[in-house]
Specification:
This protein has 295 residues and is α/β, with parallel strands linked by helices. It is built from eleven helices and nine strands. It is globular.
Amino acid sequence: MRIADLLRRQEPFLSLEFFPPKDRAQWPGFFDVVRQLKVLDPLFCSVTYGAGGSTQHNTLEIVTRMKQEYGLEPLAHLTCVGADRGRLGAFLQGLREAGVDNVLALRGDPPKGETEFRPDSDEFRHGNDLVCHIRSEFGSLSVGVAGYPEKHPEAVSPEADLEHLRRKVACGADFVITQLFFDNDHYFNFVDRAREAGIDVPIIPGVLPVQNLAALKRMLAFCGATVPAGYMRDLEHVQEVYGDSGVRGLGLGYARSQVRNLLDRGAPGVHLYTLNKADTCLEIWKDFAGRQGRR
């Protein structure tokens, strides 16, 4: 079912993001996590798409299994990296044949080891190019795009970044999922600015429960998000004293508080970056379940 239609039916909602393991030997463990998290009754589950299309085939196979074997509503990521009409058409046709109705259109990040994004074609340079192509060739799909509460790291200004988002919505995007953030004011200010710019589609906040400090710092380096100074000091302190288990505990508590505050202040739902881990998401769900209406 199209996410654009699902978003009209229920608030608040929970959605989840997974990334495909490159090694197929890890797939049984991955799908065990999917099985465990199905109890959360997520509105949809997004599945990422590796740099340079490195896990494109895996993404297609995984979203197909999520739909057909697990009864979940998948959202397949798709990027401009390595894109051409033939490759995009084959991927999107594969989604259609699998009964998958949703795609997240992204420019994508530079391949590993590179710092600058270089488009592979003049036709697909930005996320809005993908949105326009999908709308033209596969108009029945529901299309989501990314938004950056703290500005895309390559954008020259917040205003310019918001204009890029407006173009994606003007091309036919149905909803926005934000990049991770740790100060909820960033999200609500972003929504206010988007509405003033005429962007009226749902904007879903993306929340990352921190589980590993080194991994967090790597993510911050390329996504442009910031961490409140006090929270970062606390994370570094518990890492030094208690190790990774301390970071996971603190990250869980912070994420639970962040989710509660988002919903209390009127966010339509929450998109959790699972990192393919079930336990933290299940703990957050305990707070969320009382708010979540039944579909």
